[in-house]
Design a protein that fits this description.
Blueprint lengths: L3 E4 L5 H12 L4 H4 L4 H5 L3 H13 L3 E7 L5 E10 L15 E9 L8 H15 L7 E7 L3 H10 L2 E8 L7 E8 L1
Parallel strand pairs: 4-5
Antiparallel strand pairs: 1-2, 2-3, 3-4, 5-7, 6-7
Helix pairs in contact: 1-4
Organism: Streptomyces argenteolus
EC number: 2.3.1.-
Pfam families: Acetyltransf_1 (PF00583)
């Protein structure tokens, strides 16, 4: 694999925005993302600048990108730190110190090349490196109909936790929680 996985830099906010907007136009975006393309494209530059700067800091969140040999971005994943007593990110408030993988996207021309595995390896390693206090588990959510994503997550080592959430826009559909425990 000729990709380098690294943390996004604050000054790369425009590229981060571009990749996010592309992800939200993917045919399965309605299964994978809470936000829509229409919502995201109207956000001001300041939003994207602040979001990318926070992800570059790596204190409460971190965004990884996979960069190809020509400098092209092949994919991304973001990690949110969730602590007991903190604000609930998605679903219930955290019962243990954990991280939550979100915003997973690999551009179509780069799929099947190990990009998602490398992104997840970096995100999980970063999660395990948090020491104050240490993270007990890494979690993510996947729509019950997103079999391709669920298969990737299982291959990487995630297992269903047994927790589910109704989808915000369709309470008849479920988000399944997957996890890896330390």
């Amino acid at each position: 694999m000729d990709y380098v996985v690294r943390v996004v830099r604050a000054e790369e906010w425009a590229r981060a925005r571009e990749l996010r907007l592309e992800a939200l136009r993917d045919p399965v975006a309605h299964l994978a993302f809470v936000e829509t393309y229409e919502q995201a494209r109207t956000r001001p530059d300041e939003f994207w600048q602040q979001r990318t700067a926070r992800a570059a800091e790596g204190e409460h969140s971190c965004q990884f990108i996979a960069e190809g040999p020509e400098g092209q971005w092949a994919g991304t994943v973001s990690v949110l730190v969730e602590r007991p007593g903190g604000e609930p990110g998605f679903g219930e408030a955290a019962e243990v110190d954990q991280t939550h993988l979100v915003g997973v996207y690999v551009r179509p021309g780069h799929r099947g090349r190990g990009v998602v595995d490398a992104l997840f390896r970096a995100a999980i390693d970063w999660s395990w490196s948090l020491a104050d206090p240490p993270v007990e588990r890494v979690r993510l959510h996947v729509h019950e109909d997103n079999a391709r994503a669920a298969a990737s997550y299982r291959r990487i080592g995630f297992v269903p936790s047994g927790q589910t959430l109704p989808m915000r826009d369709d309470p008849n559909a479920l988000e399944l929680e997957f996890e890896i425990r330390r």
